[in-house]
Specification:
CATH architecture of the largest domain: 3-Layer(aba) Sandwich
CATH superfamily of the largest domain: P-loop containing nucleotide triphosphate hydrolases
Number of helices: 23
CATH topology of the largest domain: Rossmann fold
Distance between the termini: 42 Å
Radius of gyration: 26 Å
Largest sheet: 6 strands, mixed
Shape: globular
Length: 610
């Protein structure tokens, strides 16, 4: 652990409640000290008080009672607010909350300019901050045309440019691709180790929490556990009691130990691969190979197949900000698939799925489209085409209203889809829009069923404002508002981003339930490779606006070097298989944790060639 010289943040019995919370404290009697140069990670379920804690530190929220000091200054005293905010930078989960300018470099310059940094130095800080987050080539772009992940990098750069003494990252890597997450965390680690910057990292990624000197766990506004990351994650029973899931690596260890392997509770894949290898050696197994992975079904043509051919799209065409997002995509998604789309930030994932229910229309479906005359001797241009079931999206006469009732879309930030005064009105909007002749009784029945399907209590939430709900509840209400029309195809753009591990698990279980019962095809866009491995039948890898690969997760993740070169990663099970392969043990699994554990048990039980 880093040697700490003094405390730069101190909480003394701090309490805070939001208006309308009926006396429920979001932060309840918190006592906390953070040392200069400390790297502190904060974990907890959605609604546990993590973000509130962060906002109290630099006075964005004012405590109801107790005392908070930052660098010895009382946060409650208004005269200290400017000085504290100069020295404490926060990067929020949603980057749009921090975008203030129409050009990227102006956005990054905003903080230093307001602090009175000399103009010559501001330019140097912009260069450094944008390089640090890998966004230097976008410095003259407009933020509104960037993807969610790219915006997040810009938000991080804007705070880095201030060069604060304390940086707080509130789920700031949730929307980034694996490479982006690594780059941002590496920058933060470097600032922490080399320049002594104090770091508070609020995260749901266990691999990020492991990098900290100390981890605290919050539950219902209280700090319930504190210690090194290793000490925290040894308390599996306690974590589950606080609505947190065990890390996937711990679940695998527990499963293998049930088979008598006696593995240590390690937290890194290379350490677990070594533990398994040593356990094999103790039984005299120095080389072995498991049985092959099995797959449940072959793809077949269905009524709701999706066919995409030569799909190309440019944002702000014929303008200085023209950006080619898609470049000749050909893709087939069969009815019945649970299909994944992965790719680095800005690879075109969100743009692609927005074409599938004509939120972005094909050019020939537009009112102003006219076929260009082809000069003699030149080939005719190949226009893009998309068919979704019976709908031809290239046809001006396509019934786009019926298409959108059949193809539901949940966006990256579900709160953007919430707009009504009550949860009931929000969920009912889609049903009423697509069922003009429905009675009030039919609408109420449909809304009740949708709210209950997503796991919320209808009577408890129906009259609440959707904006008073937690992040996980908002996600569920957004999904309810889409599935109320019972779409044949459900598309979700980063459905689990920003949710705690238990929330992610519950959302994916919900999607599988819908898929089993009535939704023919589910398509998810995700940066989480474990999420793809555990849930998808196939996945497409996008890069530079094109499809690089499309295959089963086990086939895709067998090409680790290729994925890493594209700014992606591989799931935990692939890393474990790679580590065991170097020890002479070949585990052929379908990349799910359950199958990996089963294959390792198979070898350990002596039912493989040794």
């Amino acid at each position: 652990m880093t040697e700490l010289s003094e405390n730069v943040i101190s909480f003394e019995n701090v309490k805070f409640s939001y208006s309308g919370s009926d006396g429920v404290y979001a932060v309840n009697g918190v006592n906390l000290e953070v040392g200069r140069g400390e790297f502190l990670s904060v974990i907890g379920h959605n609604g546990s008080g993590k973000s509130t804690l962060a906002r109290l530190i630099n006075g964005l929220l004012e405590a109801d009672s107790g005392k908070i000091t930052v660098f010895g200054m009382d946060v409650a005293e208004g005269k200290n607010s400017i000085e504290i905010r100069k020295r404490v930078g926060i990067v929020f989960q949603n980057p749009d909350n921090q975008m203030v300018a129409s050009i990227v470099e102006d956005d990054v310059a905003f903080g230093p300019e307001n602090l009175g940094v000399p103009r010559s130095e501001i330019g140097e800080r912009i260069d450094w901050a944008l390089r640090a987050v890998g966004m230097d080539e976008f410095r003259h772009s407009t933020p509104t045309r960037l993807s969610g992940g790219q915006k997040q990098r810009i938000a991080v750069a804007g705070v880095l440019a201030i060069k604060p003494e304390i940086i707080i990252l509130d789920e700031s890597t949730a929307m980034l691709d694996p490479k982006g997450r690594r780059e941002v965390i590496e920058v933060v680690q470097k600032l922490n180790k080399e320049e002594g910057m104090t770091v508070i990292l609020i995260t749901h990624f266990m691999e990020e929490a492991l990098l900290a000197d100390r981890t605290i766990v919050m539950n219902r506004g209280e700090i319930v556990l504190s210690g090194t990351p290793e000490e925290i994650f040894e308390n599996g029973d306690k974590l589950e009691a606080y609505n947190l899931c065990l890390p996937k690596i711990t679940e695998i260890i527990n499963s293998l130990n049930e088979a008598g392997m006696n593995l240590k509770n390690v937290l890194r894949p290379e350490e677990l691969a070594e533990e398994i290898s040593e356990s094999f050696k103790s039984k005299g197994i120095t080389s072995a190979e498991s049985s092959p992975a099995t797959f449940s079904e072959n793809l077949c043509t269905g009524e709701w197949d999706i066919d995409i051919k030569n799909l190309t799209f440019t944002y702000s065409k014929k303008s200085p900000f023209a950006t080619k997002a898609l470049n000749g995509i050909d893709l087939h998604i069969a009815e019945g698939e649970f299909f994944g789309i992965i790719g680095h930030t800005g690879s075109g994932k969100s743009t692609l799925v927005q074409h599938l229910n004509a939120l972005i229309k094909l050019p020939q479906a537009g009112k102003k489209f006219k076929k260009k005359k082809v000069k003699k001797g030149q080939p005719k241009p190949v226009l893009p085409s998309i068919t979704v079931g019976r709908f031809n999206l290239a046809d001006k006469k396509c019934d786009f209203r019926a298409l959108r009732a059949s193809v539901g879309m949940v966006f990256q930030y579900p709160e953007y889809q919430l707009f009504a005064e009550s949860v009931f009105a929000d969920v009912a909007f889609g049903f009423k829009n697509f069922n003009k002749l429905a009675t009030a009784e039919e609408a109420e029945k449909a809304v009740r069923e949708s709210i209950e399907i997503v796991g919320l209590d209808y009577n408890e939430v129906k009259d609440k404002s959707p904006f008073d709900l937690s992040g996980g509840q908002k996600r569920r209400v957004a999904i309810a508002g889409v599935i109320v029309t019972r779409p044949e195809i459900l598309i979700l753009d980063e459905p689990a981003a920003g949710l705690d591990p238990l929330g992610k698990k519950e959302i994916m279980e919900l999607l599988h339930k819908l898929h089993r019962e009535w939704c023919k095809t589910v398509i998810i866009v995700s940066h989480d490779m474990d999420e793809i491995a555990e849930n998808c039948t196939r996945a497409a890898v996008l890069s530079g606006g094109g499809v690089v690969s499309c295959d089963s997760p086990s086939a895709l993740f067998s090409e680790r070097d290729k994925l890493l070169s594209l700014g992606l990663d591989v799931p935990l099970t692939s890393k474990l298989c790679d580590g065991l392969e170097r020890s002479g043990i070949t585990v052929r699994c379908d990349c799910t944790a359950a199958d990996f554990a089963a294959k390792v048990k198979e070898i350990y039980g002596g039912r493989a060639d040794a």
